[in-house]
Amino acid sequence: MSEHKDEVLLKVNKVYNPPQRVLEKVHITAEEFDRMYEQSIKDPEGFWAKLAEEELHWFKKWDKVREWEFPEYKWFIGGKLNITYNCLDRHVKNGKRNKVAYIYTNEDNQEIKITYGELLELVNKIANGLKSLGVRKGDRVVIYMPLVIEQLATMLACARIGAVHSVVYAGFSANALRMRIEDAKARVVVTSTWTKRRGKKIDLKSVVDEAVDGLEFVENIIVLQREGDEFELEEREIDFYELIKDQSSECEPEVMDAEDPLFILYTSGSTGKPKGVLHTVGGYNLYTHVTTKYVFDIHEDDIYWCTADPGWITGHSYMVYGPLSVGVTSVIAEGAPDYPDPGRWWSIVEKYRVNIFYTAPTAIRLFMKYGEEWPNKYDLSSLRILGSVGEPINPEAWIWYYEVIGKKQCSIVDTWWQTETGGHMITTVPAYPQKPGKAGKPFWGVEADVVDREGYSEETNKVGYLIIKQPWPSALRTCWGEPERFEKYWTEIDHYYFAGDLATKDEDGYIMILGRADDVINVSGHRIGTAEVESALVSHPAVAEAAVIGKPHDVKGESIKAFIILKQGHEPNETLIKDLKMHVRHELGSLAVPDEIEFVEKLPKTRSGKIMRRVLKARELGLPLGDISTLED
Ligand code: WTA
């Protein structure tokens, strides 16, 4: 940053009012938002029932809006719907058959456009293909594919027939994929041969081969072959287009109960293996629809671009279900943000006249490093709303986003939410005043607070735990096969949803998220459990013990550092470091590979033998050690 520190500080404490051109368009003003917020807390049932009726199509209306028997809750009990009907059929029936649903592009600047009508037909063909393999309502389908239209269509095809999809990010290793396939007992795995990143082909098929090896319950593997591929398919493997080519393009949507499962998505917790977060159809459809419409202020002729990957929750809620339910045209881009050059994303914004752009702070910081000259080469004047998600956005990055990308003509929405929450929880809507680095206010139906360990509200601007006081429509319903882990969310601080984040609340009620309160590391907006990385390291023959911490990193937000005690007879050297990194890549995937590995003789532990990562971290960063009364020696 060229600017003087004081100047940045001044800007940080400034309130940014929404630009006139944003205000002229908005669906709701700040006052309307506030009024509706009040209603949503006072009468959640009446509030959500009204929106459910106005915004979605139901085959049958619900009998009861919400049932809350601690710790469980249900929404729209007895209601029948299919999310794909809301995402596709109703638009096609209402004159939007020829409206573009997705514009796909990639590093080679290829372009594929698919309309709502065509997408519905593709989804139906895949749905019929899945049915022909015996996939039925409730069966699990794992999707391990790159960001291509067929990927999104496969998710929708599952939802069409009531199969539960579990998408696994295509950067995960064979072992991580296998764990997810096994845990969900997937009947079918859908994959593709490769993806391309920075001009290099990344093989996906061999990862799947390794992941399903010996798993007999996996009946079929559907393989999307890409340009130039000629794979010899084995016995249980079927070519994607071979499977769907003779299928009918009509498929009646399965009549789903509002509380039937829609998908499982695995995410890291502070202990043990990843949790399979389960979302159900009705509440999720409504909440993602409403947040997409109002937080991004989407209008009929807008072009919307979310740069996430469907392997994460952001992709589920804000690339697939939310935008399609609202009926907008979305851009999707396979490949790296800065390849073939750092102007790539901005050239896409210019080319497609993108109005709403949603990305992660790590990407913004990456572009800050490349410098303003890259975005300045392109016409970004179509942009109106800029979104941020995945990790706290530091004020410098916020201001850069606002000034260099938004030209002070856009509203920024810094959306705090989680895999578990299904949709945006804390943010400002575009008509609201914004503060750099502060996510903002709770969205409709979200009763948020910052509290101490006992659940009492913290004083203004004091750090505490972020909690939500009552269930909202898209709250996770359970953790797949592990109901006790679900309960923990609501019992950690009694009767409140415990988000696991530290936060403060200011005099205007704006919430600032400071980061995780638990042993979860956020690398480039991706959640990684210290326990996962540690157990991957310990599974290496040279490692006796391992402890992992997150360290501040100027682009990634956090990077991983591992401290390792070697077993007798192993030499600490560069070759071993390389080997350990390779090992973690193989066990978990490249996301989880530590940037730094340090060999140590001893790890700080409590008397009961638990590693005190907090102490390691404080020592590493030169911070006060804090309370070390429980330290062993
Ligand atoms: C962090 C991603 C600050 C937070 C949607 C949360 C954020 C975790 C923000 C969830 C934000 C997400 N400001 N922190 N706007 N958005 N986080 O499940 O620590 O991949 O608990 O969901 O990301 O990550 P997840």
SSE layout and pairings?
Elements: H1 5-12, H2 20-23, H3 30-42, H4 44-55, E1 64-69, E2 72-77, E3 80-81, H5 83-96, E4 100-105, E5 111-115, H6 116-132, E6 140-144, H7 149-161, E7 164-167, H8 174-184, E8 188-192, E9 194-197, E10 200-203, H9 205-212, E11 220-224, E12 237-239, H10 240-244, E13 256-257, E14 261-267, E15 275-280, H11 281-295, E16 303-306, H12 313-326, E17 329-333, H13 344-352, E18 356-359, H14 361-370, H15 373-376, E19 385-388, H16 395-405, E20 411-414, E21 426-427, E22 441-442, E23 448-451, E24 464-468, E25 478-479, H17 483-491, E26 497-505, E27 511-516, E28 520-523, E29 526-529, H18 530-538, E30 543-553, E31 557-566, H19 574-587, E32 596-599, H20 613-621
Parallel strand pairs: 4-17, 6-7, 6-8, 7-14, 8-11, 11-12, 16-17, 16-18, 18-19, 19-20, 31-32
Antiparallel strand pairs: 1-2, 3-13, 4-5, 9-10, 14-15, 15-25, 21-22, 23-24, 24-26, 26-27, 28-29, 30-31
